[in-house]
Amino acid sequence: xxxxxxxxxxxxxxxxxxGLVGIEREMHQQPAGLRTHMILxxxxxxxxxxxxxxxxxxxxxxxxxxxxxxxxxxxxxxxxLGAGAIFRYGATIKGLTTxxxxxxxxxxxxxxxxxxxxxxxxxxxLLLGALSVLDQLEKRFLANSVTRTINIRIQDRQGLVEELxxxxxxxxxxxxxxxxxxxxxxxxxxxxxxxxxxxQQNADQVIxxxxxxxxxxxxxxx
Length: 222
What we know:
The structure is a single chain. The chain is an alpha+beta fold. 57% of the residues lie in helices and 20% in strands. The mean pLDDT is 79.
């Protein structure tokens, strides 16, 4: 049987490893952050400890018992939790990385519960590398888009917002945030947008497209 001290050590190790991944997700403002990953790792480790302990305790009565059966259900159950982290906005899908990190943290918890601390530590380090280091490399070298700030001052009129949305779609912009303010005296609308812009898109192309808008007063593309 596994001693109480061994179980406590494994639960603490699982909490630390799961917490490290959770902190990384929290820093990226993901819905599943520190607490979710930590609790998941602790629960997985506890399930593995219980599975091993039950197999050892009842081995004389059930010699062909499978110690991995209870722990295997953790992997199946994580599918439902991971699905809750995935969101779809039109053609854009968000949360896949968080869902996979939840699944991997659950496996790390099982590994810790089985007593393989070194392997679990290496797996956590690799997971953090994939989430943090590779994320930066992808954004710098592999991304097809860059984030730009767009400021527009234009005469307000009916149908303007829909017309601007169509222009953004034509240019391949993906708006991340959009802010409006209106000058009631001049009836001008000030628009500030932060959007993902195709890397090959330059300011001249954007200016040429926006210059066709009726009533445009000023435009900045940063």
